[in-house]
Amino acid sequence: MTVNDDSFTNWKTREEIAESMIPLIGKLHRERDVTVLLHSRSLVNKSVVSILKTHRFARQIAGEELSVTETMPFLQALTALDLGPSQIDLGMLATMYQADERGLSVAEFTAEAVAGATGANKIDRREPRDVVLYGFGRIGRLVARLLIEKAGSGNGLRLRAIVVRGGGAQDIVKRASLLRRDSIHGQFQGTITVDEETSTIVANGNAIKVIYADDPTAVDYTEYGIRDAILIDNTGKWRDREGLSNHLRPGIEKVVLTAPGKGDVPNIVHGVNHHTIKPDEQILSCASCTTNAIVPPLKAMDDEYGVLRGHVETVHSFTNDQNLLDNYHKSERRGRSAPLNMVITETGAASAVAKALPDLKAKISGSSIRVPVPDVSIAILNLQLAREATREEVHDYLREVSLTSSLKRQIDFTTAPDAVSSDFIGSRHASIVDAGALKVDGDNAILYLWYDNEFGYSCQVVRVVQHVSGVEYPTYPATAV
User: Catalytic one among 161, 255, 289, 401?
Assistant: First the structure.
């Protein structure tokens, strides 16, 4: 048999195993509210090829490829356990098992590693929590996709309504079409139908009421059967407590803003300070996409090396706030054509660091350049450290953070030598460390952090909403703090 034959036979074997994993993953998700992960990447509703690619991607962060032949036994062991709602990482299970020297079987090791989610320890499945989207722009539609995707278990978050201004004839049809097809993020994964008579969009079986209103105070959500909902304002029109309080109408319990909050509105970066949210807090902000990109790695670096000062330069994709062609704009440079120019502009991300990381004493400055790409940005984080380090040391530390720390859902890591911005479209992490671009010289470290400023940020928003709604389930095996 030739090498090519061997390679193809191996592929077909792994393809068959991945195919057999799909019903096991789906059943755990639907019946027990268990999300199966591989190094923080969900395997729920993934195709055979996607499962295989996710396993192969592990070589970039863990140094070697994971095979489905290694992870399948752990998945089979999970199906035999009395599991409660949780997230379980097959990659972590396999890695930890390889390092364990006690001679346990896969079944024994798995039962021990996820003991917190089984038997008397398991938590109860939560009732679905109503969610309302106020606005339906770039972030609103991506958050809608994520909420619909995560409704598969029948628990967790349930998108009940979208509030928009009336847009004339066939408004709801056009909005549904924008949800169905996206020039950057591709086709919606599922089916969408529209009932114009009842102003309802049905996406993968989720009935979503479209409410037309010009003002937050004009809506009584209880009229639509909505109770104790979390409203996500993705318009950015109101950013202080007084303005956002207008959303606290009948049926709405909490308001989450997808822009930096002003005044005393808490700015939350999931993974860093979401645990500081007070149970009775009704209004909070998810900060900006850039703040979410830089704060987790900034915290990681400060925890290990100490940070004395820093500067962040963001090379940011253009946004709807800019003009397609030169035209009037209240901001001096943003009026110039976005697809034709690099545009120097300001960023509030550096000043927002203090809200998310109040214990960080370092002064962080920042600036931004908008560039002619529609999505994915890069933050260049230039840090003066409290102690000297080597490039190899920082490289290995950040890779380990992305694999095993409490920030692994926020920080990803790539060693791909030819990586470019479009490779990170659809990334669910807040930022991705580019290992090849990392520079360390004594007490100076420069991190290059890619981030999908649309989708990655939307994932962070949903994580915050899950947390405040009480449906953010624990992850096993437990990670380091």
Answer: 289
